[in-house]
Amino acid sequence: MSDFKPQWMEGTMDSRPQITIVMNFTRPTDTKPALLTFDEVKTFLHEFGHSLHGMLTKCTYQALSGTNVYRDFVELPSQLMENWASQKEFLDGFAVHYKTGEKIPQELIQKIIDSENFNTAYFCLRQLSFGYLDMAWHTIEKPFDGDVIAYEKQAMASTQILPMVPNTSMSATFSHIFAGGYAAGYYSYKWAEVLDADAFSVFEKNGIFNKKTADSFRKNILEKGGTEHPMVLYKRFRGQEPTIDALLKRNGITN
Ligand SMILES: [Zn+2]
Description:
Layout: E1 2-5, E2 8-10, E3 13-15, E4 18-20, H1 38-55, H2 76-82, H3 88-91, H4 106-116, H5 120-138, H6 148-156, H7 170-173, H8 175-178, H9 188-206, H10 211-222, H11 230-238, H12 245-250
Antiparallel strand pairs: 1-4, 2-3
Helix pairs in contact: 1-2, 2-9, 10-11
The structure holds zinc ion.
């Protein structure tokens, strides 16, 4: 997703945004229509979520409109939309077999979910370990002249399940947090999952096409851009701060 033009207001004039999604999809062949992979559908939904954030915004200043929010909040609309990809009610609307018209059976959808959740607890801890390591490096207040591997080991200790491979160092290859713009921000990958799972649990409860819930998400989050603190906006939609419960459930860690 990107924009040709952002949104802003002056007086009563609302200059609407122009948003685009550009993707490389599987092409049709001589014998088959374009059959999107599950990943392509999810990526489209992800970018569509960013697009809604960009399109539905209603802010005065363009520097605060649309997706101009804190980094650890920008993936909420996009990751939220991905949740629809594994909902039968959503898939039944369009995802039919191109020859027979058959809908995707629930058992197959469950297999997709199960395969996504393979080793999920391990991957969760792995993400957390990177978040802890990132914070450990970026909260140092004095020049560091200690042992990098020992420092790293200590920072990641609470999430370490498997023994560390001797003479390797994650820090030395962690370009995300030194050259990738994620300094003190790596946690936001996991945090975005907490937010999107928690937010989707409201849709699951009220119905994935519930208009009232969708309107609330639109008015309280999508329209607001970065004009207020993310937690203020989120609580207005959700009625409370997010918890990790919905994410643990979605990952199959709890029931
Ligand atoms: Zn994104």
